[in-house]
Sequence to fold (268 residues):
Amino acid sequence: MATTIHPTAQVSPKAELGDNVSIGHCAVVEDNVIIGDNSRVEAFASVKNHTRMGRGNIIHSYAMVGGIPQDLKFNGEESWLELGDGNNVREFATLHRGTEGGGGMTRVGSNNLFMAYTHIAHDCQLGSNIIMSNAATLAGHVIVDDSAILGGFSAVHQFSHIGTCAFVGGMSGISMDVPPYMLAAGHRADLHGPNLVGLRRMQVSRETLAAVRSTYRMIWLSGIPRKEALEQVEKEFVAVPEVQTIVAFIRASERGVLPASSKEGSTE
Fold:
């Protein structure tokens, strides 16, 4: 199908639009923008300079993607925002491009949902199948791995890392790394056990669920020194990829991982 541009939209002649792209009423598409096939930029949304996106993305009304970084070190150098396929960017969400100090690229994978008023700051690196609920915020240089969920009004400190299938509760402040498959919550967040709901949605086996729960208890609750605990679960669950992913994440963490809650409740 042919690409359609509303007469009131402002689309730069330097922008590249694929097939079956729709640009809505009063939308703005600036220079050096690439929009893939079957994408939609709705009324009053804006796609800023140096943004490229794949197929099937939807930029809802009043969202802004590709904005200039909120970084005082940014001096107008060329940098980019890159989105994969099938992302859903809801109203008033803001996604900013990278800075020279962060490699010049903010990168977003595919099939993500960014609800209203969410913010992705400069140089963030996001995977796919992520959900950011209303007003969830990422500071600069944050990494979010596949299938993570961030609750509404949560905030993630710069340079933090959210692991795959992690869950961050609403109104939580994340100041350290959240390991894969874990649930973090609190004003100054800590861990409340494995994200069992997420793991069950992944349809992992009962044996895998038990292994992840045992891994959590060993690393965070047993009192065994962290290095020894990691070695123990690595050997005990050598055939469980999820456990090996947790171990590798913790060892690679630069900020350190969140501690367990002092008010440990049920992880059922």
About this structure: The chain has a mean pLDDT of 97.
